[in-house]
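re the bet — no i am not wrong, look at it urself. input seq straight from the record:
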Amino acid sequence: MPAEIRAADQRVSHFRQILMWPLQLMPLPADAPIDSHSQLLEAASPDNPWHELVDEFSGDPGQFHERHYSEFVTFLPYVQRFLYGEGGGQKAIARYGESPIRIFRRHDVAKVRMTFKEGDEALNFEIVHLDLYFFYDIDVVILVVEICADNLELRQVQDTLYRFGRAYPPYWDDDGSGGHCLKRCEWLAADGQLLSASDYEKRSKYLSFVSRFRAPCISSHWEFLLRPLVLHHSDAKGLVRYRQIEYHRMPLLAYLAMDDPRTLSRGDFARLVLVTGPGKHGSLPYSDQHLEGFESRYCIDRFWHPQADDPGTRLLSCGHAFVMVGSAHDDYFTGLETGLLGQFRHQFFLLALIPHFHKAALLMLSDRLVTALNRLEIGNAESVKQFKRAIREILEVFLRFSHRYWFHEISDQAQARALFSMTRDHLGTENLYTELREEIQDMSQYLDSDSLRRQANTVVRLTVVTTAGLVATITTGFLGINLIDAAQDGLIDRILFFALVAIPSVLLTGFAVVKSKPLSDFLEALSDERLSHRDKLAALLPVWRKKRPPDAG
C-alpha cells in the first residue's frame, strides 16, 4: 500500500496532551492580608473554583497505588524530597518535611470544544486535570491542562498540538481570525453548559491593550481558567496578579497510541515534536539542512524498532514539546496503571515540569533584577537604599533556589536521565543559570565594594577628627597640668568655664568633620616626603577655600 494511502488511513487510537503554562506572579503588597500567593485559593468562597489537592502520600496507605510508587522511585532522593517532601515516620519540625509544591485543582470544567479553521466541525476533548502549581518562595505559578480524546486523524492531532496552547494571537488572517490559533475554543461544564469561549478574533481588543499597557493581552478563555488570579497589566481588580514570562505558545507533552506508528515518516515525526502543524505526508516542515542530525538532536530511540513487528516506543523532545509515540496494540504502552501511559502522566510529566519550572524561575529572577536596576536613581539616597535591599532579597531568593530547586541530575534511570538532559539542553537552562548567577554576583560585589568605600571614607573622616582631638588633648592635658584651677569656685563659675571650653571644642570638632576630606588630603600631603614645603602648604588652602557651585549655564 502506498505511503500516502497509509497516512490517510492512519488514526490515533488514543491521544493525550498536557499543557504547561509558566507565569510570573507579582510580589504581594506589604499590607496584603495573605503571606503567600497560594493562600488566596485556600478560601472556600463560592467564587473560587480551586481547591488544594491532597497528595497520595497523605491518604490511607492502603490506597497507595503502584503507579505512585513507580513515580516516586524514578527520582533521586533529593528530588524526591523536593517533589513529595519527607516525614511520616517521625513528626516534622516547623513544616520542614513538607514539599515546597502546592497543587490546586478545579473540577467545574469537564470538556473543551475546539473548532479549527479548516472546517466548522468541532472536536470535543475530555478535561482530565486542571491544576495550578505553586512553589514555595518562588513567584512562579504553572497552569497544567490535561486533555484526551480517542480515534482521531493524525492531521487533527497535529492541528491540536499546533493551535490549542496559544495565549493570544501573534497576528490576524484575512478573515479576521487569530493567526495560528483555533477558530474557537470553548470550556464546557459536565452538562454541556458553555463556561467561557476564546476571543482571538477581537483584533481591536488586543491592539488597544498593547497600546495602553505595553503588554500582551490574554485570551478570555485563559483568563477565565486562572481566576481569581488576574492579569497584572489590566484594570481587573485582584490581589494576586500574574504576567507573561515566556513565549505565548505553551510548552506541552503529547501521547499518541497509533494503529501502526511505523507509517509515520521522518517529516511526520518532525512536525509532531517541533509542533509545526499538519502537512503533506512525507514532506519535511523545514529544509534538509535545518533538520540535519534530527534523530540525534530530538529523538530517544533506545526502545524504537521500526523494522520489527513490534516497533516499540519512540520519545522525542525539543524542549518546548515532549512527544511519546507507540502502538495502540501494545498493552504495556497503553497501560494506565503501570504501563507507559501511566508513566507519561506521572514520571514523564514531572521530567518536563522540572526544567520548565527552572527556566521560569530564572527568568523571574532576571526580571526582578532588571526591575530593581530600572528603579535605581543614583542621586536619591532613599532609592539607593531600596535598590540595595532589593538586590539582597534577590540574592537570598537565588541562593535558596539553588539549594532547594536546582538539579543537574534527577534520576539514575537511563531513559529518564537522557530525557531530562535533552530537555535542559534545548531550553538552555544551564547557560541561563550561569548568566544569572554571574549578574547577581557582579551586583553583590558592587554592593560590597560600595559598602567598603563608604566605610573607608568614614574611617578617613574619623582619623582627621581624632588627629584634631589628639592635638587639643595633649595641649590641655600635658603632664596633667590644670591651666585653670576652678575646683573650689562656685557652681556658676564652673559651668561658665565648662561652656567656654565645650563650645570651642564642639565647633572645632564640627569644623574637622565638615572639612575632613580636604584635611585628610592635607595630612596625606604632609606625610609625603617627595613634596616641597610650598606644595604641602598649598594642600592646606582647600581647607579654607569655599567650594563654588557649578555654573548654571
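see?? Residues 466 and 509 are 9 Å apart (CA to CA). told u. also Residues 341-474 form one domain. so pay up
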